[in-house]
Design a protein that fits this description.
Blueprint (H helix, E strand, L loop, with lengths): L2 H12 L2 H10 L6 H13 L7 H14 L2 H15 L1
Helix pairs in contact: 2-3, 4-5
């Protein structure tokens, strides 16, 4: 894993719900505080390599079970913005 990947992974792990909501707004993704908290809880619970599509898809499926497919889709779009 290169240094850029490590920095992005660390930032994602340290996000707060408020920061996630702010990033979401920047990319046109509206998240409620409750939705952001659920996403953050799962981010902290499971270590994933967001640069690995298979791992990200598995994580998104888990998020869809805990929240809803719509929230999982929004979270996936937001994660994709981080890995660009």
């Amino acid at each position: 894993m290169n240094i850029y990947h490590k920095i992005v992974q660390q930032k994602i792990k340290s996000l707060t719900a408020d920061e996630l909501m702010t990033y979401g707004k920047e990319y046109g993704i509206t998240l409620s505080k409750e939705e952001a908290i659920k996403i953050i809880e799962l981010i902290r619970k499971e270590t994933i390599d967001v640069f690995n599509a298979e791992e990200r898809i598995k994580w998104i499926r888990e998020l869809a079970k805990l929240t809803s497919p719509q929230i999982a889709k929004q979270a996936n779009e937001l994660l994709r913005q981080f890995v660009k």
